[in-house]
Amino acid sequence: MIPALRQKKIISLMQEHEGVMSINDLVDFLGVSHMTVRRDLQILEQNKMVISVTGGVRLPNQLIHDPSLQMKENFATDEKNRIGKDAAKYVQDGQCIYLDEGTTSLALAHYLTNRSDLTVVTNDFEILNFLMKESSAQLIHVGGVVRRKNHSSVGMFAAKTISALNMDYAFISCSSWDLRGITTPDADKVLVKEAALESSINKILICDSSKYAKVAAYRVTELTRINEIVTDKKLPDNVKNAVINMGVKLTLV
């Protein structure tokens, strides 16, 4: 198993074991040496995906930094693909939609290549580059301050561009959310996401279940402002019921 797949498996195993595992257990589950596991954990910790504790590691509840694009590309790829495919069903020809930065939004973009007369607004350079090559949609990149780590743009100028538009759908991504709402470790992302929510008729959160129960410093919006959440079936049952009871539509794929 190549390192990227093994690191993805480590995160998956930890999610199945309530977010905490010993190094010995990881060695047993993965069938590799202690040194191999420690190397993988070092990479994951450098990217803020895990936190070392005595004898093992835990998943962070407090999100200090967004993971890099390279790390996000290696995690929950199947879930992101299913989420993107389902979310794309909402988009009709002739509509104007916003795709928030992130690999889940990029997965959604892959299902929009044959749609005619779309206007796609995004702050994500990877999405822009893909759709420039693979679609005939009208594309609007919002500009702003460039975040090299995430291949996206943020800040006041990006938000002003979005605020000048009337959009049918905003597909919002995030790295952290709970029943109180969506949060981000990057204050400049708040302006962009807020502008997208304000300028759109329909507001859909698209993210895999690993993002649940993580909290970051800056609040984007309360959950009740979202019309629908599209996520995977690993979301805990008590959370599913709580979301539905809040009046937010929940789609599990």
Give the total of domains: 2
What is the approximate shape? globular
Instruction: Kindly state the number of beta strands.
Output: 15
Class derived from helix and strand content? alpha/beta
Instruction: Report the CATH C-level class of the largest domain.
Output: Alpha Beta
CATH topology name of the largest domain, in short, is: Rossmann fold
Low-pLDDT segments, ≥5 res = none
Instruction: Determine the N-to-C terminus distance.
Output: 27 Å
Strands of the widest sheet, in order across it, are 6-5-4-9-12-14-15
Q: How many distinct helices? A: 10
Order of helices and strands: HEHHEEHHEHEHEEEHEEEHEEEHE
The CATH architecture of the largest domain comes to 3-Layer(aba) Sandwich
The share of residues in helices is: 25-40%
Write down the overall mean pLDDT.
92
Report the major sheet: 7 strands, parallel
Q: What radius of gyration results from the CA coordinates?
A: 18 Å
Name the beta content range: 15-25%
Task: Write a structural description.
The chain is of the alpha/beta class. The chain has two domains: 3-60, Arc Repressor Mutant, subunit A, CATH 1.10.10; 71-252, Rossmann fold. It contains ten helices and 15 strands. It has helices spanning 3-16, 23-30, 34-46, 69-73, 77-88, 103-109, 125-134, 156-163, 187-198, 237-245, and strands at 20-22, 51-53, 56-58, 96-99, 119-122, 138-141, 145-147, 152-154, 167-172, 176-178, 181-184, 200-206, 218-221, 228-231, 249-252. The strands form four sheets. The chain has a seven-stranded parallel β-sheet, with helices on both faces. β4, α6 and β5 form a beta-alpha-beta unit. α8 (156-163) runs parallel beside α9 (187-198). The mean pLDDT is 92.
